[in-house]
Amino acid sequence: MTEAQARPLPYPVGSQSPQEGLKDLLAKAVPGGLLTFGATATDLDVTVPPADLLTLVTTLRDRPELAFDLLRNIAGVDYETDMALKYHLYSLKHGHALQVTVPTTSGHPHVPSLTSLYPAANWHEREASEMFGFVFDGHPNPKNLLLEEDLHIHPLLKAHPLAKVEILQGIEEGPPGFKF
Amino acid sequence: MTHWPETTTPVLPPDDLNTVDMTINIGPQHPATHGVFRMVLTVDGELVVDCEPYIGYLHRGLEKLSETADYRQSMGWWDRTDYLAGMCCEMAYCMAVEKLGGLEVPERAEYIRVIMAELSRINSHFMFLGAFGTDVGVLGTTFTYAWRERERIYDLFEEVAGDRMFPTYLRPGGVSMDLPENFEQRCRWVLDSARQGMEDLDGMMTGNEIFVERCRDLGPITPERGIALGLSGPMLRATGLPWDIRKAEPYSIYDRLDFEVPVGRQGDVFDRYFVRLAEMYQSMRIVEQCLDQMPKSGLVLNPNLPKTLRIESGECYIRTEGTKGEYSVYALAKGGNKPYRMKLRSPSFCNLSGLREMVVGTYVADAIVILGSLDIVLGEVDK
Questions:
Q1: What is the pLDDT of residues B154-189, one digit of tens each?
Q2: Which of B206, B222, B330 to mutate to test the interface with A (most CBs of A within 10 A)?
Q3: Which of B239, B251, B346, B370 lies at a 20 to 30 A Cα distance from B104?
Q4: Do residue B56 and residue A92 have CB atoms under 8 angstroms apart?
Q5: CA-to-CA distance for A10 and A8, rounded, in angstroms?
Q6: CA–CA min distance A118, chain B (Å)
Q7: In whole angstroms, what is the distance from residue B314 CA to residue B328 CA?
Q8: pTM
């Protein structure tokens, strides 16, 4: 049995840089005051409109001082009057994390797909799409993932009733404004 | 593709042989899929040309349910996500609620949580060793050995929490009750037994040349590709990247503990197996250090907890190192006694999304082994 050769690592992991400097780095990388900064209890937050999402994330991924190489999570949120997508990015190289918030309208808002930048976005976007009704432009396989394939409901919307199988089966009327 | 020996004269030249791709459905009720998971393989002879995973058979609407219940009522649903390591899931959920509500956890409770989480990790990896051995063809032997040790850990959980698989032991602000009197002695006995069981399994699997030859160089993944696919946990560490959230972004009391992060060499199936085996030793080290360091008495639940927890507003993304990878919770509160939104980032879900890339180009029998090496838990994939 031959000893397998260890592949060289892309970079040493765990070389932590302080999280505080991240805001300055971002402001320098994206000039013109395009970004709106905020903070959650755990992370720095950046708000960006859907039209600028691809440009911003490409910058975040490709600038060596930012190097956000891991897309951890995509979470949709329904605020009833409008909706939002939360992208959680992480840099293994620098050890810093960022939340990108993309506010959208209600209904079926169009958001560019990140699958060309991060293959990991594929299933996250399919999930957000079926649960909330987001439309990801450029997604290679925009089918339902967790729900049945021909079921076009968006259960995580606040308007969706929790437990009313009767509505699904057509025995009862749904609440006003609620349509399958 | 087919190699014709020179001594025989083929009826047709190989280039004109039209082979038809065949579609094979595996699952959702199939022992090798470790639950209700279905994949449709397109095969050319024995070679896998395409693989389409179908999930959602166990979707219980965890996130929707969490929005409708009190912060403490949801606990019982969250340990049903990764049902092999319920304590790890409860810990992530509780940490999210504590972050939003600004609750403090007593020191003794933090140690108890880490002990429980690491015992769960050992338990879950035992399950992997047993089931993976069965996938590869060591048949039931590894399964019975692994099961014996898992039973002992579950017995310990029952003594502590009153339940084996779904303990619902943790609470936002601590744990529900103190440890039983003879816990330390019992825990050390369980660890000794588990160590012996691991050595037996190690000998049966790593010492078995057929097993090693079956797993080595199968489905390798480079570190760059692993990051792009969103892999985490042992799957990513097998590629050689020492990324462990317990080290990279320490939470709870992990920064006080001395342990190492085992990594693999080339991210193949054998490395994934071996990283998990090595991790179990590290988990045992952690539990032993916790037993030595923890305060011998004291509160285990924050005494200032309100009767009903109401959180005005807040948003957080809590990450923990689950047994399968990054088990994270995105939580959003907008007043009231219920969360406005809870999102689970489940590691098996993300690891499984990379399955197609690992499986295409291998043989059908290897596809089962690669799926086994992902160590998925369908409760966590489907939420």
A1: 999 999 988 888 888 998 888 988 898 889 999 999
A2: B330
A3: B346
A4: no
A5: 7
A6: 6
A7: 16
A8: 0.86
